[in-house]
Amino acid sequence: MQEERIELLRPQMGTSRTLTVRRYGKAGSGPKAYFQAALHADELPGVITLHHLEALLKKADEKGEITGEIVLVPFANPIGFTQYVDMKPLGRFEMRSGQNFNRHYPDLSDALIDAVNGKLGQNPDENVKLIRSELRRLIVEHRKDVSPLTDLQDLRLTLAELAIDADYVMDLHCDWEAPMHLYISDHNWPDAADLSAQIGSECSLIAEISGDNPFDEAFSRPWVELRRAYGDKFPIPMATLATTIELRGDRDVYDEYAIPDAANMFKFLQRRGLISGDPGPLPEAKCDATPLSGVDRVMAPHGGMVVFAAQAGAKVKAGQELGYVLDCETGEKTVFSSSVDGVLYSRIGTRLIVPGGYLCSVAGDKPIAGREGQLLLSK
Ligand SMILES: [Zn+2]
Questions:
Q1: CB-count burial class (<10 Å; 0-12, 13-18, 19+) for 114
Q2: Is the pLDDT of residue 379 over 90?
């Protein structure tokens, strides 16, 4: 294992930040996996899962079983780690700019299409090598175009530079109250069905574009666009599987979850040829993929407090009571429900609700008419 501490852009006089990166295996020896946790800083289930995954990787390393390269950022957001208001950590948005830490990653698709023009051939492996070497070059070039470079943009670019040429990009997040679920490009499906089954995902949401370029899409989209531009003339595999894994809710920081979750990720790496050894049989999938455009997001009709009647992870029917919002000043009580049958895969973590505030999400199995463009909750 090699540990590196990358100095991030100094945000202010007398202040510095570093990003810890650990590398297992050898670059170029086989497929590359990139893992990061807590890009939204106060989402710690991924941090404890990577802690346990590293224990497994260390043992495998000692036995010479690592046959690929595994790059791991155990906590990806030193900026967000120190953002507190009222004793509460606030890690989703950068407080200075208001921007979501998991949006606005560079989209290198157009630059990549230009860069490989006239260089592709009929050997898919050679094409992948060429494309990856161009991606490595383009992300470094892109940094020169970002002016002025803020500490937030420096963090984004530093993470993107580490992940840009990976075969597997695993961005570990969590929801507020949720079962295990994941987001992934529809172009990575059904390839990623083994990952979904191995980690026990109860809701696997697919979309090509979810809006504002979150971290995972910065690595899957260039391949999608390149295949669209040249795929009829040249063999270009969908060589990067990039996903956002939501490790349940933000308070689900327990060894009883994290140890098996880490073991499942280790088995996935074995199945994909990054670690030798038998991962055993693939567990039966708990869900099939469903479209992100089939998610019904339920919002509060008025302010008050929310009292849920359905648990996160429940399979619910359209019109079924999921809970109610109660205004104790007016006595107004409004029962809420979803317009679709599906999995209630996300519930808000607070109980005090404002008018139009987010309550919960239900994933149906068909796109909902008019649901396009901005498919995720917030910028
Ligand atoms: Zn998150």
A1: exposed
A2: no
Ligand 1 centroid – CA 343 distance (Å): 19
Contact present, 250 and 350 (Cβ < 8 Å): no
Q: What is the pLDDT of residues 304-337, one digit of tens each?
A: 999 999 999 999 999 999 999 999 999 999 999 9
Distance 131 CA to ligand 1 centre (A): 29
Ligand 1 centre and the CA of 3: distance in Å?
Answer: 25
Residue 110 CA to ligand 1 center (angstroms) comes to 27
Ligand 1 centroid from CA 235, angstroms:
34
Instruction: Please tell me the distance from the alpha carbon of residue 255 to that of residue 262, in angstroms, as a whole number.
Output: 10
3-state SS of 39-61 is: CCCCCCHHHHHHHHHHHHHHHHH
Give residue-wise pLDDT tens across range 41-56. 999 999 999 999 999 9
Structure tokens at 180: 């295990």
Each residue's pLDDT tens digit, 101-138: 999 999 999 999 999 999 999 999 999 999 999 999 99
CA 117 to centroid of ligand 1, rounded, Å: 36
Task: Give the CB-side neighbour count of residue 40, counting CA atoms within 13 A.
Answer: 24
Phi-psi region for residue 343, left (φ > 0), alpha (ψ -120 to 50) or beta? beta
Instruction: Note the pLDDT of residue 377.
Output: 64
Give the distance (Å) from ligand 1 centre to CA of residue 218. 16
Rounded to 5 degrees, what are φ and ψ at 354? -100, 165
pLDDT of 376 reads 73
Rounded to the nearest whole angstrom, what is the distance from the C-alpha of residue 81 to the centroid of ligand 1? 13
How far does the centroid of ligand 1 lie from the alpha carbon of residue 69, in Å?
Answer: 25
Domains of the chain: 2-287 (3.40.630.10), 293-363 (2.40.50.100)
Q: How many Å lie between the centroid of ligand 1 and the Cα of residue 40?
A: 5
pLDDT at 378: 58
Position 66 confidence tier, pLDDT thresholds 50, 70, 90: very high
Q: Are 139 and 108 in contact (CB under 8 A)?
A: yes
Number of residues that this document lists for the chain: 379
